[in-house]
Amino acid sequence: MGGPALLEVEDLAVAARSRRGDLEIVHGVGLQLGPGETVAVVGETGSGKSLTMLALMRLLSPPLGITRGRVTFDGRDLTALPERDMRELRGSQMAMVYQDPMTSLNPLMRIGAQVAEAMTAHGVAKSEAQRRSLELLARVEIPDPERTARSYPHEFSGGMRQRAVIAIALAMRPKLLIADEPTTALDVTIQQQILALVNELRRELGMATIWVTHDLGVVARLVDRVVVMYAGHVVENAPVDQLFHAPQHPYTRSLLAALPNPADDSRPALVQIPGRPPLPTDVVEGCPFRPRCDQAREACRVRPTLQPRSAGSAACWVPPAEWRP
Amino acid sequence: MDVAAPSLPAATGRTRVPAWRRLLHSHSGLIGVLLTAIIVVLAAAAVLGLTPHDPIAQAPIDRLQGPSPTYWFGTDQFGRDIFSRSIAGVANSLTVAVVAVSLSAVIGTLAGVSAGFFGGRVRAPVLAVTNVLFAFPPLLLALALASAFARTWLTIAMAIAIVYIPIFVRVTRGPVLSLRESDFVKAARVLGFPTSRILFRHVLPNILPIVIVQVTLSMSWAVLTEASLSFLGLGTPPPAPSLGSMVLDAKTLVDLAWWTMAAPGAVIVTFVVGLNLLGDGLRDALDPRHGDSA
Questions:
Q1: How far, in Å, CA of A57 to CA of A96, rounded?
Q2: Between β-strands A307-309 and A312-314, what pairing exists: parallel, antiparallel or unpaired?
Q3: Which residue intervals of B118-203 are DSSP H helices?
Q4: N or C: less crowded end of chain A, CB within 10 Å?
Q5: Is residue B192 domain-resident?
Q6: pTM for the model
Q7: Does B69 touch chain A (CB under 8 A)?
Q8: Could B13 and A118 be called an inter-chain contact, meaning their C-beta atoms sit closer than 8 Å?
Q9: B217 domain-assigned
Q10: How many domains does chain B have?
Q11: Parallel/antiparallel/unpaired status of strands A307-309 and A225-230
Q12: Are the CB atoms for A227 and A31 separated by under 8 Å?
């Protein structure tokens, strides 16, 4: 990854503030993204991945807030940016695609107007925005854009709506796209189409992309690197090939083992990781994964930090060579 | 990864049945529209001076006449034409109700939307005032306010407006609370839209149907409140005809001349029922989930 990073997150912590003190939910996450690079952030529900994304767009609403750390985007420190400049950045430099396309469009506005609004809000002239919205709708493969631009969201299917949402997100040609589980609410066949479409547009626009997902299989072929989060910590950050073939953290290995593999008869159809992730209120001494880890040992009573591991890094005291099978 | 370009069916572009057509297709909506229209047309005629007789002119010779071809609804104790007075009274009630409800709708909706959208500092005072106003029985509060000011139709309208502001705060705040958390409002924030744009283009239009329905229903209550105030002697000042004061005058005459009370009473009932049916019809017609097909 040559050149300066487009996005650099250092030691970002998010906490719910209350009179009785802060309850930290995301504990010092680090992340780096070069221009045009694609990264997947993977973790179970509640691992803090979506919260981290909202934090780096500065969209947390009280009582949630950033308590520590720095987010540098395109050379600017976002945590110190005035709200006005931040708003300027959102939607034009950094965009987001949401999970549920059924609810992320205004039911009372025509599709075309919603695409155009994403541009007029950032200073594009109305006529220009209208013309470009038709191009965008065509680009996300919505048939007959002239007519569909005049439709309302309820006249669209889920896949079509997600295409419209993507058109809106990409309207200002952002440098960074955050895709927060954009396919979870869609049929499997549509999922593949949407993934392929975003990937294609990403390459075309040279956008850096963060895929947020709990499904490793979905993004395996789309990303350069994978960041695995567990209970508000980054536990592993590795190039996608290494992550799949030589996971450096026992949690990553368990996640991979839990992927269904119909071809393999030698193991049960569904494998699970025993136990459940700790809640932010639970106090876990040492490594947060220790209670569920099949490799836990005495050393794990001290919290591990991210350490370089071959081409990536992992937060585990025990190198894979010493793992019990 | 190579996925063939999808060939999704085009959005069919079904023609959306307009809300007014759905309104006229429902029985209550149709009856509500008709009753309200009749009353409004009569009131407009009265405003333009197109009453069969002068509503204020007295004709002592003709007093307490029963309904006849000359005096359709009979005459009162001063020989004034009750039909003319009734429709002139409706015009007055309607003016008061329209002004009162417009005021309370605008103020109440803005307050409710702000209280729902911005937390804390805006919410607390708005809800405090709302709750205090709600603690009074509406008619009592209107009475107190009406007697506190000089009696003109405008002060009556303002008194009624204050009474109905809390209702608009209540009906709009809840939906705004959930709209604020809805994905498309969040998405608008992600897209960097300014707050004013989010409020006026994404939040307000989505609660407009609620406001419209509430306006219609409040209109009927406002007409009733105005009539009640006049009945209690604190409404529209005489000699301007008012439905409430006509009923008050008729109170002592009803044994002798039933029509003196029947006419203004029937007009009030017709108007209020009409507005209520219209409100119900609008509520169904404006529901965005009834997007297609009738």
A1: 9
A2: antiparallel
A3: 120-135, 138-148, 153-180, 183-190, 195-197
A4: C
A5: yes
A6: 0.75
A7: no
A8: no
A9: yes
A10: 1
A11: unpaired
A12: yes
The arrangement of strands across the sheet holding A176-180 comes to A94-97, A176-180, A208-213, A38-42, A225-230, A233-239, A312-314, A307-309
Report the residue of chain B nearest A145, measured CA to CA: B10
Where does A7-223 sit in CATH, by number? 3.40.50.300
CA-nearest of B82, B69, B134, B132 to B258 is B82
Cβ within 8 Å of A, B 239-278: none
Q: Could you give the angle at the alpha carbon of A187 between the alpha carbons of A207 and A143, nearest 5°? A: 65
By the 8 A CB rule, do A28 and A68 touch? Answer: yes
Measure in Å the smallest separation between the Cα of A105 and chain B Cα atoms.
5
- Contact (Cβ atoms closer than 8 angstroms) between residue B113 and residue B253: no
Chain B closest CA to A174's CA: distance in Å?
Answer: 11
In this structure, is residue B12 part of a structural domain?
no
> Which CATH number is B264's domain given?
1.10.3720.10
Return per-residue pLDDT of chain B as tens, 294 residues: 444 444 434 444 445 567 778 888 888 888 989 998 998 898 888 888 777 777 777 777 777 777 777 777 778 777 788 888 888 888 888 888 999 999 999 999 999 999 988 877 888 888 888 888 888 888 888 888 888 887 788 888 888 898 899 999 999 998 998 888 888 888 888 888 888 889 988 899 889 888 988 998 899 889 888 888 888 888 777 777 888 888 888 888 878 888 888 888 888 898 899 999 998 888 888 765 554 433
Residue B21 lies in a domain: no
Do residues A275 and A317 lie in contact, with contact meaning Cβ atoms separated by under 8 Å?
Answer: no
Strand A208-213 and strand A225-230: pairing?
unpaired
Here the tokens at position A245 are 């073939």
Rounded distance between C-alpha atoms, residue A44 and residue A30, angstroms: 18
Q: How far apart are CA A317 and CA B15, in angstroms?
A: 64
Q: Whole-angstrom Cα distance, residue B133 to residue B167?
A: 10
Q: Under an 8 A CB cutoff, do A104 and B187 touch? A: yes
One-letter amino acid of B108: G
